[in-house]
Amino acid sequence: MGKLRNFYKNIKYLLRNRLENQEFLKLTYEDVLENCLYYLPNTDVPRPNMYGISETLKLLVDKDFSIARYGDGELRIMRGSGIKFQEYSESLAERLTEILKNKNKKLLVGIPHIYFYPHYVPHANKAEKDYRYFNVPKLRRQTLANIDLTTKYCAAEISTLFGSSKETYDAFRCIWNGKEIAVVTCKSLWDGVQYNIFDNAKKIHNVWVPNKHAWSENDRVLSEVSTLPKETLIILMCGPAATVWADDLSKMGYRALDIGHVLKGYDFFMRDLPRSAENVKRFYAPD
Question: Considering the entire predicted model, what is its pTM?
């Protein structure tokens, strides 16, 4: 009954927004119904086989997989547009499209679990609801058009700016505990945190990239990382470029983790900072 009640609430929200949100007019009734069906189990809507968020994190702790993750930004670049921190590049878009099929057995590919296995959030604000109901259907269709349904994917949401628990961060810290690591990110991000989640690593190498358009440094970054011993764990926090570099570096014999917001998120968590537009903006690379 709970699932059906949530289904009804989803329909009610969407119908109410017909008159309030012009985006609704861009959707067909079939789109609306299909989106709601994803909230119900055992429906015949297409879904990839996926590990959940906790299963994905456990795989990274217990095994030696690399991981490349996709989100809205990567999909937008694949469609031919740039995003705030990464201008459009044809070569980047081609690589992102290629890797999403994933023929690399050493690599886990993460796609948003929320696209295919959403859950009802009763206290979500209007912006969050609009994202789920009006943006996710388009992103889901694009993802389905580019993935291989015979491949098992993992959840991209292992690393978020808000909402991760102490257990999640403890699990991450187990991955690099006592190991030599290289962190590929921008210096402004590294210098901007009070609590460094990597402080339990044996040794940290920093490989700096620009705070915008990291893909422009592709050749230099791969060349610099390739001078490190193969047992060095590579941590990538540099936008869509990280997705491609995780694949490239794993093929070069490294373990590479594209884990996005983990540094910022851990600092937010340790400082108990509330989720607010001001706090989010403060932690993104400056213009």
Answer: 0.87
